């Protein structure tokens, strides 16, 4: 890319990439050796000043447009940043809640596992059932009942003797 003059570079940056066409200097006409010298026209400073003023206004307008765009961009960036932080905070809170629920579920599972380990297995239950059927504990007698039966028998024996 060709090296630009500082004014051209400034205009290119602040015009959104659109640059007015460069104004080429008018070639000087040099009189020959034997020509009559005509007085050169006086430069029109008023037109030059008006042109420069117009260009300055365009540059100022482009600058203010860029400034407005920049402010809008900054505002939207700040809003997006706030939304992002709020969403992040809510997500972290949800993650903490899920972690706590998961911890509670793990504790309940461990408690269930301990309860299941303490329950009787089917084989053990069947063995106990066979022993109970064989012993018939319903027919067992308590110590007090035995003493009562002995007293009754002694009483009967004494009545038979008497």
Measured as a percent range, the helix fraction is over 70%
Structural class: mainly alpha
Q: Helical stretch count?
A: 4
Compressed to H and E, one letter per element, the order equals HHHH
Please report the total strand number as a whole number: 0
Write the layout of secondary structure elements.
Layout: H1 6-14, H2 45-118, H3 122-135, H4 143-161
Please tell me about this protein's structure.
Among the domains are: 50-119; 122-162, no CATH class. It has four helices and no strands. 0% of the residues are buried. The protein has helices at 6-14, 45-118, 122-135, 143-161. The termini are far apart.
Task: Summarize it.
This protein is 72% helix and 0% strand. It is mainly alpha-helical and 162 residues long.
How would you describe this structure in keywords?
162 residues; 4 helices; single chain; 0% strand; mainly alpha
């Amino acid at each position: 890319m060709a090296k630009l003059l500082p004014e051209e570079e400034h205009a290119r940056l602040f015009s959104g990439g659109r640059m007015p066409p460069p104004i080429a200097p008018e070639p000087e006409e040099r009189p020959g050796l034997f020509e009559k010298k005509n007085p050169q026209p006086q430069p029109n400073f008023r037109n030059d000043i008006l042109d420069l003023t117009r260009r300055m206004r365009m540059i100022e307008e482009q600058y203010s447009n860029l400034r407005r765009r920049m402010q809008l961009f900054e505002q939207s960036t700040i809003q997006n940043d706030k939304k992002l932080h709020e969403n992040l905070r809510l997500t972290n809170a949800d993650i903490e809640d899920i972690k706590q629920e998961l911890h509670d579920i793990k504790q309940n599972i461990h408690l269930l596992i301990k309860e299941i380990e303490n329950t009787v297995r089917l084989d053990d239950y069947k063995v106990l059932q066979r022993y109970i059927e064989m012993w018939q504990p319903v027919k067992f007698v308590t110590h007090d009942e035995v003493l009562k039966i002995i007293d009754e028998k002694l009483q009967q024996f004494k009545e038979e003797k008497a």
